[in-house]
Amino acid sequence: MKDVNAIAKKALDYKEKGLSEKEIADELHLSPETVTWLLTRGVKGGEPPKDVKIGWRSIGVYGNRIGFMAAAMSDIALEEMEKRQMDADGVIGVGINGIPLAALISEELGKELIISATARVARSRRTTHPRKGRRC
User: Which of 45, 67, 71, 93 makes an SS bond possible with 98, Cβ 3.0 to 4.6 Å?
Assistant: First the structure.
């Protein structure tokens, strides 16, 4: 791992040569935000830029985001199937979160949708028969 001060010095050298922050970012293979941090606070200290965490909750609460993910994953699936000269029979959605995504991917690919519930979900869906008192 490279020393942050050494990278900050390189960024400052590029800046003195007249490169823009975008050009410095390209040269050092860093994000423009990281270059800004290096130029303004990197040598002196300060908090580095924070990474952005994207979890399922960020995606799964909006249908359009699920659609964007499905489109990207469908594109990747098509590319991989073409590379490997293979085809898929269906798309499987595993668990409650995987089903909406799989449904959109299966629609995009024109493939059968297969749903797999996890054991926990399957157990929670068992109900007691109203008259016989047995679990169904």
Answer: 93
